[in-house]
Amino acid sequence: MGEFELLTRIRERLPQAGPRVRLGSGDDAAIGVPGGATATSVDAVVEGVHFRRDQASLVQVGHKALATALSDLAAMGAEPGEAYVVLGLPADLDEEGCLELLDGMAALATATGTTLAGGDLTRASELFLAITVVGHADSPELLVTRSGARPGDALVVTGELGGAAAGLQLLENDEARVDHTGVGSTLASRLRARQLEPRPRLGAGRALARAGATAMIDISDGLGGDGAHLARASGVGLRIEAAAIPLAAGLEEVAAAVDRDPLELAIGGGEDYELLASIAPAQLDAARQAVDEAAKGVGLTAIGEIVAGEGVEIRLPDGRLLEPGGFDQLA
Amino acid sequence: MGEFELLTRIRERLPQAGPRVRLGSGDDAAIGVPGGATATSVDAVVEGVHFRRDQASLVQVGHKALATALSDLAAMGAEPGEAYVVLGLPADLDEEGCLELLDGMAALATATGTTLAGGDLTRASELFLAITVVGHADSPELLVTRSGARPGDALVVTGELGGAAAGLQLLENDEARVDHTGVGSTLASRLRARQLEPRPRLGAGRALARAGATAMIDISDGLGGDGAHLARASGVGLRIEAAAIPLAAGLEEVAAAVDRDPLELAIGGGEDYELLASIAPAQLDAARQAVDEAAKGVGLTAIGEIVAGEGVEIRLPDGRLLEPGGFDQLA
To answer: N- or C-end of chain A: fewer Cβ atoms within 10 A?
Structure first.
């Protein structure tokens, strides 16, 4: 393909640049006028490692690559700003395919107010996308790290968990086919979309930051894994009530069809891209209201508390404790 | 390899963070306190497309990947700030190899005052590096784009051209072996280093920006190709005197050994990562002095002028004009 021509076609499809971008794609560098502080994160996805073209459309691949990058900005409570995209393009991906990838990114960029401000194209033997996202805040103190959780804080989570894991089962496991689970095709589509088209919780993240969240992380590796990251960074322990975890609709049916425990999928499955945060209990009602206003229908649920100590302790409905990785206890 | 352990080893080797970085690698995003304007650029290199591991050490691969990204900041006249690095790691690259890549980047980061502020590691079937660099300036007006050249401006270039192309000949072409060219092993090493370990002209770029450069670009595709980019972006023509182009020492001997014209290698070869800039003639002496002070031994040479019109016209020593791509005229 002619790189120059392709770049021209790509630039024609880019959404309008945001107010912080003085000069977008096409020069040696993009020029921005940032706020008082920036949050910057970079994420890469590789075909065969992070996605499969026989499961996800190229539009979905582009969407998810940008979504997972933006999810890191959500977890900082940052306002999304700019994205810079590297595409590694294999020989079997034609110009139309490249534009489909871009369409997936451009639609999400438009929906979230993100400017696609620059990028680089290269030949590669396999398809990969590396995306750098820059978010903004008026000052560095307004951004929420993983390290500020204090004993006594409440532990909260946005949305529902386990939906992405259930969606993956529907995509990969014949036993989880709709006709076996009885979840219905609309709900099954919604679960697959949780896996293939995650929505970064940018509005909820900013609402939680403003409401006083002391620490925050996005749930990409699973509640257990990312909870452990937050606990380690803050030097505290997490105590989670399993019965309080908001489970995705349809998760129980899919889990039953593949003979797994729904809690295992909700805690260990990952890729839900919901936010896990700690916040003083006195702020909890205000935070819930702020999330409701900023992100319609997402919801905020208290699932436990921050304690002195370390690690993640999950109390099962029957009172037993789930050790890290100890999902066989669930059976 | 254990990603967590590798990340810990990587973080131990990172140079100290600069004053603009409040929080580096390890959270959902890095936190920065930028200046009044940022210049952001992203570059990717892929094994087999941009480098070969049998020609370049992993330290050199890491160095060059960061150097070519920083060269875009040099071309904006920006102060280097932060770099964010994605590594795609194939199965045959072990942990030590990964750390060698990082050492190449870390040494250049230290030398240029760049903070390696974040990154992502992923498995991949071939080695690739995608690097986003962020530079700073007090205001967007102080950054130099490609589009400000005006008829009557002088055209200047930093350093010498053709060295990287001669180095590539020495690496790839048996006819160019030292014993055939008679350039001597020290000079041959220097030419190979121009290809494998380019130095971004960050100091010269800032000096040119302060001295009033009206447009600037780094020479990665060759003087002819990048000159055409600058001409197109500015809506002007470039007139270059071939006799004025500063040729790298040893270029003539290498070119003779492989039966090529040294001007062809200097104009078409690319990868010199020198800067091409336009500037009002009245500022020329001050610019030359500023570059001499900022970048010892690099030098600034006037090679032509900006004219009304379009395209790049190169006047050969005998008065003939070299058309774009018309290197066969040289023979």
So the answer is: C
- Chain B partners within 8 Å of A32 (Cβ): 37-40
Task: Please give the share of chain A, as a percent, with pLDDT higher than 70.
Answer: 96
Q: Which residues numbered 136-155 in A keep a CB inside 8 Å of some CB on B? A: 140, 143, 145-147
pLDDT digits (tens, 9 = 90+) for A155-206: 999 999 999 999 999 998 877 777 777 788 899 999 999 999 999 999 999 9
* pLDDT tens track for B6-58: 777 888 888 888 889 988 888 899 999 998 999 999 999 999 999 999 999 99
Spatial CB neighbours of B165, under 8 Å, sequence gap ≥ 6:
B195, B251, B265, B266, B268, B269, B270, B271, B272
Q: What six digits make up the tokens of B53?
A: 């591991």
A314, A238 Cβ separation under 8 angstroms: no
Residue B254 contacts residue B166 (beta carbons within 8 Å): yes
- To the question of pTM greater than 0.90 for the whole model, the response is yes
Contact map slice: B 266-325 vs A, CB within 8 A: none
| Contact of B196 with B167, CB cutoff 8 Å | yes
Is A235 near chain B, with CB under 8 Å?
no
CB contact under 8 A, B43 and A120: yes
CB count, 10 Å around CB of B97? 16
Give, rounded to a whole angstrom, the gap between the first and last alpha carbons of chain B.
Answer: 54
Strand order in the sheet with B311-315: B215-218, B275-279, B154-158, B300-307, B237-241, B311-315, B321-322
